[in-house]
Write a structure and sequence with these properties.
Distance between the termini: 41 Å
Largest sheet: 9 strands, mixed
CATH topology of the largest domain: Alpha-Beta Plaits
Radius of gyration: 20 Å
Order of helices and strands: EHHEEEEEEHEEHEHEEEEHEEEH
């Protein structure tokens, strides 16, 4: 590629980070082009050497978006040195970044991509994209529990050290101790905290869908490429969610 594009887009298309985050790095003086500190809004091409935090950025890599069925007991971490990390234990390319982590005790669908903008678009809580889970708890589910979970629950947001009330969501009983829940938020350990508010303990938590991408019959540890049809629908849903959120 000899044509020039904006520096933030160049960085984002490498999968290093989103365009917004790239702008932050540029403002902080952490980006260099051909050995000189970069300026906001500058344009670059493949003939230029771009570095972020002294790391060379490789641009225009083939787009990747994969679905991974993360087993329980493995951590979402980018560090290969973590013995329980997904990149240490499964054949995931090092240029991939996970989209919306699953905690170590949870399992199920995890999307990974090398597209920084797509990662940011799906991960950001403000975009309110649907994520569906199947949850098993330690005792019999009641109608009051299902109603309370659906109407919103007061939980502690440990990241900001504040109490919040979760948004209304769809909850459906599957059997005496299992239910499905569709969230448009992503607080840390949100479902576990919601259940704890009603004195239930989560025994098993499995994510089965992110927007339109479903886990289907994938086996634990299995990795597959997202199909072109799924990607087209994904982008369509993302655009629709943006329109809906703008109305609120």
């Amino acid at each position: 590629m000899n044509e020039q594009i904006r520096l933030n887009k160049y960085i984002a298309s490498s999968g290093f980070c989103s365009r917004r985050k790239a702008d932050e790095f540029i403002e902080q003086g952490k980006v260099s082009v051909n050995g000189k500190t970069a300026d906001m809004g500058m344009r670059v091409s493949d003939a230029d050497e771009v570095k972020v935090n002294n790391k060379v950025i490789k641009h225009d890599l083939p787009f990747k978006l994969v679905a991974f069925n993360k087993p329980k007991g493995y951590a979402c971490t980018m560090h290969n040195g973590d013995e329980s990390g997904i990149f240490k234990n499964f054949k995931l390319d090092n240029d991939l970044k996970y989209i919306g982590r699953l905690d170590k005790d949870s399992e199920g669908l995890l999307l990974l991509t090398n597209d920084g903008d797509l990662c940011n678009e799906i991960s950001k809580a403000r975009n309110q994209h649907e994520k569906e889970y199947v949850v098993t708890v330690n005792r019999t589910i009641t109608d009051d529990f299902l109603k309370g979970m659906a109407e919103g629950v007061k939980i502690h947001d440990s990241n900001k050290d504040v109490w919040v009330v979760t948004k209304r969501c769809k909850v459906k009983k599957r059997n005496d101790k299992s239910f499905s829940i569709i969230l448009t938020q992503g607080y840390n350990r949100q479902i576990r905290k919601m259940c704890e508010a009603f004195e239930y303990k989560v025994v098993k938590l499995r994510r089965i869908r992110v927007i339109n991408i479903e886990i289907g019959e994938m086996k634990p540890g299995q990795i597959r490429n997202v199909t072109p049809e799924e990607l087209t629908e994904l982008k369509k849903r993302i655009a629709q969610d943006k329109v809906e959120n703008a109305k609120q």
